[in-house]
Amino acid sequence: MTGDVLNDFCIQAATVNGSGSQSSNLVITKALHHMGIPVAAKNVFPSNIEGQPTWYDIRVTPQGYQARKRTVDILIAMNPATWERDVANVRPGGAVIHEAALPRFGAADRDDVSWYPVPFARLAREKLEAKPDLRKYLQNMIYVGVLAELIGLDPAAVEQGVRDQFRTKPKAADLNLAAVQIGVDYTRENLVKTDPFRVAPMDGTRGTVLLDGNRAAALGSLMAGCTVLAWYPITPSSSLCEAFIDYAERYRVDAATGERRFAAIQAEDELAAIGIVLGAEWAGARAMTATSGPGISLMAELTGLGYYAEIPAVIFDIQRVGPSTGLPTRTMQGDLSFVHTLSHGDTRHPVLLPGTVLEVYEDAQRSFDVADRLQTPVFVLSDLDLGMNLWMTAPLPYTERAVDRGKVLDAEALEQVTEWARYRDVDGDGIPYRTLPGTANPRAAYFTRGSGHDEQALYTEDPDVYAANVDRLRRKIEGARTLLPAPLVEEAGNRVAICAYGSTHHAVVEARHQLADHGVETDYLRIRGLPLHPAVAEFIARHDRVYVAEQNRDGQMEALLRQELPGELADRLRSIRHFNGVPIDAEAISDPVLAGEQAQREPAEHQAVDAHRVPVA
Amino acid sequence: MTGDVLNDFCIQAATVNGSGSQSSNLVITKALHHMGIPVAAKNVFPSNIEGQPTWYDIRVTPQGYQARKRTVDILIAMNPATWERDVANVRPGGAVIHEAALPRFGAADRDDVSWYPVPFARLAREKLEAKPDLRKYLQNMIYVGVLAELIGLDPAAVEQGVRDQFRTKPKAADLNLAAVQIGVDYTRENLVKTDPFRVAPMDGTRGTVLLDGNRAAALGSLMAGCTVLAWYPITPSSSLCEAFIDYAERYRVDAATGERRFAAIQAEDELAAIGIVLGAEWAGARAMTATSGPGISLMAELTGLGYYAEIPAVIFDIQRVGPSTGLPTRTMQGDLSFVHTLSHGDTRHPVLLPGTVLEVYEDAQRSFDVADRLQTPVFVLSDLDLGMNLWMTAPLPYTERAVDRGKVLDAEALEQVTEWARYRDVDGDGIPYRTLPGTANPRAAYFTRGSGHDEQALYTEDPDVYAANVDRLRRKIEGARTLLPAPLVEEAGNRVAICAYGSTHHAVVEARHQLADHGVETDYLRIRGLPLHPAVAEFIARHDRVYVAEQNRDGQMEALLRQELPGELADRLRSIRHFNGVPIDAEAISDPVLAGEQAQREPAEHQAVDAHRVPVA
Amino acid sequence: MAVAIEKLNRLGLNRDDYKGAHTTLCAGCGHNSITNHIVKALYDSAIEPHLIAKMSGIGCSSKAAAYFVEHAHGFNGAHGRMPSLATGAKLANRDLVVFGVSGDGDTASIGLGQYCHMIRRNLDMTYIIENNGVYGLTKGQSSATADLGSRPKRGPANRYEQIDISALAIELGASFVARSFSGDGKQLVPLIQAALAHRGTGVLDVISPCVTFNDHEGSTKSYAYVKDHDAPVNTPDYIAPLEEITVDYEPGTGQDVELHDGSHILLRKIGPDHDARDRMAAMRLLFEARQSGEIVTGLLYVNPEADDLCTREALTSRPLAQLPVEELRPSREQWDALMAGLA
Amino acid sequence: MAVAIEKLNRLGLNRDDYKGAHTTLCAGCGHNSITNHIVKALYDSAIEPHLIAKMSGIGCSSKAAAYFVEHAHGFNGAHGRMPSLATGAKLANRDLVVFGVSGDGDTASIGLGQYCHMIRRNLDMTYIIENNGVYGLTKGQSSATADLGSRPKRGPANRYEQIDISALAIELGASFVARSFSGDGKQLVPLIQAALAHRGTGVLDVISPCVTFNDHEGSTKSYAYVKDHDAPVNTPDYIAPLEEITVDYEPGTGQDVELHDGSHILLRKIGPDHDARDRMAAMRLLFEARQSGEIVTGLLYVNPEADDLCTREALTSRPLAQLPVEELRPSREQWDALMAGLA
Ligand SMILES: Cc1ncc(C[n+]2csc(CCOP(=O)(O)OP(=O)(O)O)c2C)c(N)n1
Ligand SMILES: Cc1ncc(C[n+]2csc(CCOP(=O)(O)OP(=O)(O)O)c2C)c(N)n1
Ligand code: SF4
Ligand code: SF4
Ligand SMILES: [Mg+2]
Ligand SMILES: [Mg+2]
Description:
The complex is a heterotetramer, with two copies of chain A and two copies of chain C.
Chain A: E1 5-6, E2 9-16, H1 21-34, E3 39-44, E4 53-60, E5 72-77, H2 83-89, E6 90-99, E7 114-118, H3 120-127, H4 132-151, H5 155-165, H6 170-190, E8 197-198, E9 209-212, H7 213-223, E10 226-231, H8 238-251, E11 263-266, H9 270-282, E12 286-291, H10 293-298, H11 300-309, E13 313-321, E14 327-331, H12 336-340, E15 351-352, H13 357-374, E16 377-383, H14 384-388, E17 390-393, H15 411-416, E18 447-449, H16 463-478, H17 480-483, E19 488-490, E20 496-501, H18 505-517, E21 523-527, E22 529-530, H19 534-541, E23 545-550, H20 556-564, H21 567-570, E24 573-577, H22 587-601
Helix pairs in contact in A: 1-4, 1-5, 3-4, 4-6, 5-6, 7-8, 7-13, 9-11, 18-22
Chain C: H1 30-44, E1 52-56, H2 60-63, E2 73-76, H3 82-92, E3 97-103, H4 104-108, H5 112-121, E4 125-131, E5 134-135, E6 141-142, H6 165-171, E7 176-181, H7 185-197, E8 201-207, H8 223-229, E9 230-232, E10 234-239, E11 255-258, E12 264-269, H9 279-292, E13 295-302, H10 309-312, H11 332-340
Parallel strand pairs in C: 1-2, 1-3, 3-4, 4-8, 7-8, 9-13
Antiparallel strand pairs in C: 5-6, 7-13, 10-12, 11-12
The complex binds thiamine diphosphate (2 copies), iron/sulfur cluster (2 copies) and magnesium ion (2 copies).
């Protein structure tokens, strides 16, 4: 043992998917959480169903950092296919728990790590009373025991983790606990700890729960009163829809009659999904869909219809790596500018950019209000990291808040107004009043169309009427600047700042600490919506250099900022881009900021016209 | 007669569509052209088939201006439905030729115009030996005669115009000529000219032809060796495809066997159209599609596949008014930024921006070379005005130039290289080498996919490999900056400049003359492609203020410029936007430039952060 | 002043109350005739205007949705996407009488996928395809229902077999499929009424000549052709649930089908002895007609037992759009339990 | 060193030459069996690897295109869009042997429109649907070919009737439709060979159990169910044009169909006396099987007379992709005449 590293290291379980390792990893994660130790879990999985490499990174961190960490301190190596590379990734002084049968030569023969060979297969075969295929699966539970014993996981916490995981199947829980115990016993009897990593209970998780963003989005939609879900399966958004269905089946089915207070339609594709959403919203229900890149592309035409015909809609984009099919099981923030102006012609859609699970929940609710208020499709941009990984978060607060259904005239309200025109700007905010089909008032009816229309919703090709109408739409969406949440600002008068949005937040939090350690104090601006809130430009104006960190290749937010900012402010931006599909880590931000600040102190070379467009990372 | 206006006025024929007025208007246009008088024709037609208002503006102009003019000098009023408004639009001192039965009261009773009532219906009934429905149609030919007589069209030129129009039907030509003569005779006998407008032969059209951009695009594609066309009908792009089919049937069918050296598939929708194009290009044929806004939206997903899998494709976007169905028969430049980054994730496509019919022809050819060279989808952006209206242009030059098929390795070439990897950057330009299916060499085969792939085109989810590959794509498309045509620059050391692209060109030409008349001398920058050529920024750097004129609401080109330019240059831009669906006219540019220059001389108020984003027009 | 006494329907509305904006379609277009038949059917069936949701795609035919029942909400959506928009509208408010008008381009080309899946779901709506074998609005290109060899006004002759949207619907398990002709109001009006009464997708494939682009000789979608080749399998009479069955015609050899709301459709057989409840018989009929160049019209197939979408989804009887948010949220206790389970 | 003597096919290639990358699908997945049958069929039919264009959409099934014939070009396109990509490829180079692999999600949901229109055009390709009634790659949601009432591994039971992609194809006028089972190489290999020889779209609807998400009791796409309910209408033997017709089995009660390249497919009837040239008979067979819960397998329908897309389009026999640009441009004289006409 070369020292003592307490509650601050990273465990990586390298397995193959379909092998059941997911349960083992969740048990470890939950056990740590039960011990009060902050934990961050990242599942890096392949786009197939069985037999391909999967890595599950469990980070324990006293500060509660939630970002991915590059370093692997403890490797649990179960996958022969990636074995050599996995071992090579372990940091010097790290530890390797591995299937004893894996051959330790070549790159896998390092003498600067602690080796813990365990005959998982044999143990499962010899010690477990279970069917062969179950045995294979339980091998992974054995490594939970090995790890628990090596790093000092509280057995009670592990048991609780197992019981959580198999809540509805007590028998399965027992079997799994037996497997864990085999690992514990084997370790006690055969292994000598030579690495420094261990855990001890602390008080870092009180009042928090473990939750993924997709379930938070589903719950937010539920609380917002969404009644129609239309979707087409696509990773990483499917789990959002499936969670909505699960919850709705739990809370929205009349126990006596079986009648359902929601409709969840698995559409034939994304074109139909958005069509169903628009049809439902047009008829007055709150409706949503969730998808990812390819689905967004397919929704382009109808989203434009929603914009122009002024129909609310909520679209969750759980971003994955694009373009094209890309890496379906990896994370990215690559759809930002595309969704903001999705569809041909002049279009512009409000976009919400939650950065935490709690914000996903809030923004999910907010998105319906914004959509209703502005009568327009609204995007909520999340990503695979935020959506599918488990995050530590405060419990989601119950909502009793009324919802904002916007300017809807019912039969009675119509009686009160002498004149009503569907697309007239009465209040000067660009937002007209609408009626719903089925309103029992002969004046309620109007004809919705994606073609040219006047204030009365009548067909027209009149140039002036057309221009006035789309200019009203422009003004209407301008209103979103202050309707969407203001940016999160952490400011202490520093000259240098970091700007980010969405899940990149967590790496920024950590990067700022790293930078402070290097003597670079930074302020922080986190953008929470598009179009930009006025506070964004104001913040930038108070800083000399603003590093815009994002998870895409083309610096999409930076480009949007440049479009809007006066040149003098635009030139203060520096772009940091991370686009390899694994969640961004703190160094991906702190390294280029450090480099940038260093360069700042040296005389600048003549800059080419588009020098700022060259990726920094 | 209050004066003499020679060869410089605007005729508007206000009719209903489906009434055959199109032929009459073409005869007038061609007759003027035959007389050597420069002419510009704009057809403003409705999105339906019969019975709705249509306006055809024929501008005669000694300078050869091709832009629309707002003023109506001579109105030919045939449509009762728009009669009052049409008359109201005539400028004081103008003339109104009209169906005598139209009631002259209300707004239609002006005393500052010359009235020429003609009993068209009665004349047709009484004087024409034709079936009733033909008679109705021939009424319109009568107004050709009236106009001819009033303004002094050369009868020989009119006859030639009629014969051109009915080239293959000499009998119809005779009948139409008879109708024209009825108009001439009636005018001689019954009308007294009181307006100042007349024409006289000049030498302003020698060496020019009349052609629309869509036919030029079809011919360019033909000359480029495009063999596969896949399309779905949509105004205003259908005529491009139909012209391609016409020409291909004329020049590409083996007279002996009937075998065709092209395939033209009317697909079931735009998703299929772009799919067929990509499949054909993948297999080595030059292929294209043409569409408009809604079709572009539907092509989003597969265009991204083309980008990422590196498959050439040519997509003509004949822009119409969006968003959504919009005004299908009106013009706009609203798809610029959408096509440039069409599809989810980080994508970027080369875009060609022809401004004249000749450039459409050249760019159509060029687009196939660029697509092949860069192995990527390429957009050619035209619009309804450029695509469907008749323009005076030099005849399209015959091409003998070889085509550039880019880096394709055939079986033989493969023998020569020791190592080949589909997605390897061998030459440092980001462009790899490709092979075609069917290449008789066992090393030729590779597997194309829209999911993650390495240099060998093998499936991978490796983060570094993924990032390196998309970064190569970025570099590859960067190369388009100098591969696409440099901007057209007209520069005389002025501090103020106008920047435009596409069909807006013609209004700029005229606006610059108007501005010069007002003492504002301007330089001119016409952008011809995206991503931007380095010369664009250089030009802007040489000017104090650059007015960016475009036909969309959101100032899309200006926004793209701001994204790329250093802030100091970005701040020199002023946005001029025209977005009502009728082609932009010179005043739409010269007025705001004048206003801007005036304001320049007065002390500037404190500017709000996004003041530059407020539309000027 | 003498006021003409207008006949009022059960709701006290007259026929004009079911009219819409003035048509902008060509004079003589079959679609205009269909509009008139729709007006009559909705009036005769006494549908509440404010409960009607008029849906359409894009095309001349789709424009027609604006030309009837002005006091109904309407939605002229996007090309080929009406089925999904209609699905959403019905889910949101199952009280709506969803009434769709589409074209053959809209349904059989770009919208074919949505059409098939709407049928699979048995969405409760009336879905009229104004079938002219041509793309009217884009000026005359052949559509996927154009016959092999038919020549459009310009461009090459059509080289592909037609898609038979009626037969396709039946193959996919549609619960109500009829074919008719725009010029035959006597047949079409009761069919529309029956489709309205039917709970499920009522497909009405109506041959509707395009006088401008596809009414020439040789087109099977021309007035002349249909007149010569119409082989009606039945002439329906529609009997609303409120009317007495003792009406002024003889049921005689007819087939009587009871629909969801207790209304009846009575088929007087003229053509072959067709049983509209027999799916294979309907398929055979269409197949044989296609081969002989005949156009069979009438109620081809009906299955009143098939569950519609809202039934399959077990939706509450109240419109989802009208549920207050309080009924849509879990209780605080449920919520707390849920959160506790995540700790 | 002793070298095992491998059997070579007519091109001198051995079976391994038709293998592809190692599968990443689940062990036991029906798709893997089909891959093996494809390898055998392509090898037996001695197709030139470099002329094969392997096409697919997105899904577990679509991934399989990478797992056979490594030395063929392949294109794993976008979800549901394989038909259009394949259409383009064939038009560009009609010498290619276009071979497609799709899934039921890929074909019957998102891709249904393209599937139908491919069939209408009779694109000359082999089109295999690896039909498991489920979305494998997205983890087990029901697909549109799932049976009414079937329960996916999670989520609600499927409330909609299945789309029968074979029957649909026949209704749309498909020229070759067969159904088979991933586990029945004896039936499937000759069917693939026949589809390869057929000039037109060869639809092969192959039940292919998803062991991970849809192999449980009650699923009609499970191994157990198919084994119990397979009602083969015929067991085909495929006879290549170069082989003699005197093969080692008895035509006996067989039906012999001659395909485009002179090859024959010989059907030994086991089930009901099915005439694979009779379209209505095929429809009836499928309809009745569906009602009785049987899965009929074998060659359901074939029409060797139907013209394929390239024939209908009268394409020159040389691949368009190989025509030099000089042959594609009008002559200078033609050009000058054209321009003169515009003056
Ligand atoms: C996505 C998209 N593609 C193309 C069009 C152009 N378009 C408008 S109507 C139409 C065809 C209409 O044909 P059909 O549905 O048969 O209606 P008809 O006019 O014949 O009644 C097309 C292709 C469009 N509006 N949207
Ligand atoms: C546009 C789009 N939407 C959704 C997806 C996600 N997706 C991938 S495969 C698949 C379904 C595959 O099902 P199937 O075709 O039956 O293949 P299987 O995996 O069952 O073999 C889906 C929905 C996608 N790739 N693209
Ligand atoms: S073009 Fe044809 S379909 Fe359209 S309105 Fe005219 S007649 Fe009717
Ligand atoms: S998930 Fe199902 S379909 Fe996919 S590979 Fe596994 S067994 Fe096959
Ligand atoms: Mg039509
Ligand atoms: Mg499947």
